[in-house]
Amino acid sequence: MSLKSVLVTGCSAGGIGAAIALLLARKGHHVFATARNTSKLSEELITLSNVTVLSLDVTSMPSVMAAAKAVSESGRGLDVLVNNAGLGYITPILDMDLERAQKLYDTNLWGSVRMIQAFKDLLIASRGRIVNIISCGAVVPLPWHAAYCSAKIAMANISETLRHEISPFGVSVVAVMAGTVATNFDANVNEFSLPPGSLYESIRDNINGWVTGTAKPVGGPADEFARVVYEDIVGKGKSGIVYRGPNAAAMGFVASWVPTWMTDMIMRSSNSGIPALVKNLS
Predict the structure, then answer these.
(1) Which GO terms of the cellular component aspect does the record hold (predicted)?
(2) pLDDT tens, 87-141?
(3) Range of 44's domain?
């Protein structure tokens, strides 16, 4: 396998992006490791000679264009763009702060589109690859996760549409539906609160369990996930949607084959807090 030039967004220590960037660099690829705040990158990553650190805010087109200029001027070109940067937001739809939800969309959805537009010339020149890290949670109606998961399923649709539109130029596109991965992601979500008069006040603790991560299935290590998706990033694997990591295949199966009534039972399990809410209302 020839060595690649790869840009990864969202490389703050403790996350999926950091694990992917570190594995790629250790394998000899040149990595453009990016983060909005580069002080959050690990010392282990930034001290490697084949890692170039770039400050990047995917919600800012000037910042994105500056990063594209830096990569172009490096003379290395770009073989792979890994869109990983993202925000989390867990709350009932009835209580959703729309400005915060819009900010999430601007990062998780439009941020990736900005990156694709800004780096398209470099990727076409190398007949490269775009890898969008999404979430298998996007394919199921998981209570309290509507903002996050709806942005992710929209990104999956954009990935698949782009796969067709950009194929004449020799660029492949992969949408990685990530399973449960143990990262610092939940720690970066702001403290959970419900507005006064919320209809969900009686199950605040249940919802907060999803915010803190205690209600979620135990995730696998981020470095193991990086190894699982390595070939999807730099290899000649399949394009399109792929399910990777713990519980990913199961979620995909539920979304594709399980009847709605059974999916409803799973989504409304006691872990969701919905049965407790029904009991409280009776």
Answers:
(1) endoplasmic reticulum; lipid droplet
(2) 999 999 999 999 999 999 999 999 999 999 999 999 999 999 999 999 988 898 8
(3) 5-281
